[in-house]
């Protein structure tokens, strides 16, 4: 079994991002959606984040214009963008010419995922599956992962939605039978929105090895 990558999303502290890099975490996620309590725009200086190396920096956007997304990519030194809203394939295609694109899908578990994914197969580098909620953003809850096993997914994907430190065994079992590219964790590892419990992150890393 190949070891999946790990993305810790909703980061708002440079010190904690540096700690993630030191732990060997692959991706740090930064939310550029102003309605989110984890909105990074007024919490981390663009120049500081741009200068940071040793971890892939992913900007999370919701129904944003291509101009604002590319401006953030340039200012913050983002390595990839995660589109977490209802973005059209055309927007994904335009962005994919400029940066790495992760297209997120908010899932209940009873959808025909195969049909939903087809329009995005040529314009996204990765997919991400998160739990569907009334609002955009995380729920802290899992969706029925079996929908992924029933679907034809032709891209490497991130598994998100309510994954916590106590789920390590369940996660290991799922990724041993499925081609999960990366795990995506957030709220279950928080002391408060945007502030992570780094000891829990360490325990999770150990638990899935």
Give your account of this protein's structure.
The chain has a single domain, classed as Aldolase class I (TIM Barrel), CATH 3.20.20. Strands 1-2-3-4-5-6-7-8 form an eight-stranded parallel β-barrel. By secondary structure, the protein is of the alpha/beta class. The protein has eight helices and ten strands. The termini are close together. The mean pLDDT is 93.
How do the strands and helices of this protein lay out in sequence?
Layout: E1 5-8, H1 14-23, E2 27-31, H2 46-51, E3 56-61, H3 66-76, E4 80-83, H4 89-96, E5 100-107, H5 113-117, E6 126-131, H6 146-149, E7 157-159, H7 168-177, E8 180-185, E9 190-192, E10 195-196, H8 198-207
* Structural class category: alpha/beta
For the largest beta-sheet, the strand count, sense and barrel status come to: 8 strands, parallel, barrel
Beta-strand fraction estimate: 15-25%
Oligomer: single chain
Low-confidence stretches: none
Overall 3D shape: globular
Count of discrete structural domains: 1
The named CATH superfamily: Aldolase class I
What fold name goes in the CATH topology slot?
TIM Barrel
At the first level of CATH, the class is Alpha Beta
Helix content: 25-40%
């Amino acid at each position: 079994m190949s070891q999946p990558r790990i993305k810790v999303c909703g980061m708002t502290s440079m010190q904690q991002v540096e700690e993630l890099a030191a732990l060997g975490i692959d991706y740090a996620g930064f939310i550029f959606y102003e309605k989110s309590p984890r909105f990074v725009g007024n919490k981390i200086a663009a120049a500081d984040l741009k200068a940071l190396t040793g971890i892939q920096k992913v900007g999370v956007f919701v129904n944003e214009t291509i101009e604002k997304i590319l401006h953030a990519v340039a200012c913050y030194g983002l390595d990839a963008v995660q589109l977490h809203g209802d973005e059209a394939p055309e927007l994904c295609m335009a962005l994919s010419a400029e940066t790495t694109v992760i297209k997120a899908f908010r899932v209940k578990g009873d959808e025909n995922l195969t049909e939903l994914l087809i329009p995005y197969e040529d314009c996204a580098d990765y997919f991400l599956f998160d739990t569907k909620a009334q609002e955009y953003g995380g729920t802290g809850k899992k969706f029925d992962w079996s929908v992924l096993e029933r679907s034809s997914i032709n891209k490497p994907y991130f598994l998100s939605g309510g994954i916590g430190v106590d789920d390590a065994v369940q996660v290991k079992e799922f990724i041993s039978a499925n081609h999960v590219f990366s795990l995506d964790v957030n709220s279950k590892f928080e002391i408060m929105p945007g502030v992570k419990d780094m000891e829990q992150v360490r325990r999770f890393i150990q638990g899935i090895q």
